[in-house]
Specification:
The chain is α+β, with helices and mostly antiparallel strands. α4 runs parallel beside α6.
């Protein structure tokens, strides 16, 4: 557990430094402003943790996804949208070439969905909830990631870190194209 906490601290420190904080400011923010939960797969509860966080959303959910086929996560996004939570999704272009996907489902549920084809791979796997919670890690939003793959997932609570992720999300949305679904 000590090793995990050390890696989380290093990761969070790097994020804060990228947002312009000095080493001292970043260390203070880590001590005062961040909580983190760690999940691993296979069968480590990553999907359940994501669905739980999405069910708590009150105002906004922003998603960037490389691979997105999880029915449970797509349903949780649709449920949040139905509750009035502003929800938007940016997907990698590979989601367009597959059969009917979760991307198609959420698009048909009225959730604004975009495709980021500017990059060789839009490999982000993030969710930003209420400008306060960031979900990130290697975990793709897929059934295979939960049941078969060795993956990790971090759930971070920090307005500072969420702000950096929102800013990056907006940059990617600016060059993405709206997806109409199949």
């Amino acid at each position: 557990m000590r090793q995990i906490n050390r890696w989380i601290t290093i990761f969070l420190l790097a994020v804060l430094l990228m947002t312009g904080c000095s080493n001292t400011e970043a260390a203070d923010k880590l001590q005062n402003d961040v909580s983190a939960k760690v999940y691993f797969s296979p069968n480590g509860g990553c999907t359940d943790a994501i669905v739980k966080e999405l069910s708590r959303a009150k105002s906004e959910i922003l998603v960037q996804a490389y691979s997105f086929t999880s029915r449970e996560i797509a349903k949780a996004l649709a449920d949040a949208s139905k509750r009035g939570v502003h929800t938007e999704v940016i997907l990698d272009k590979s989601n367009v070439s597959v059969k009917y996907s979760a991307g198609d489902f959420i698009t048909h549920m009225g959730i604004p969905t975009y495709v980021d084809s500017r990059h060789a791979i839009a490999h982000n796997k993030i969710m930003i909830i209420d400008k306060e919670v960031v979900i990130t890690g290697s975990f793709n939003f897929t059934k295979a990631a939960e049941e078969k793959n060795a993956e990790n997932l971090l759930v971070l609570r920090s307005k500072e870190i969420a702000g950096a992720y929102v800013e990056n999300w907006q940059k990617h949305k600016a060059h993405s194209e709206r997806y109409a679904g199949r």
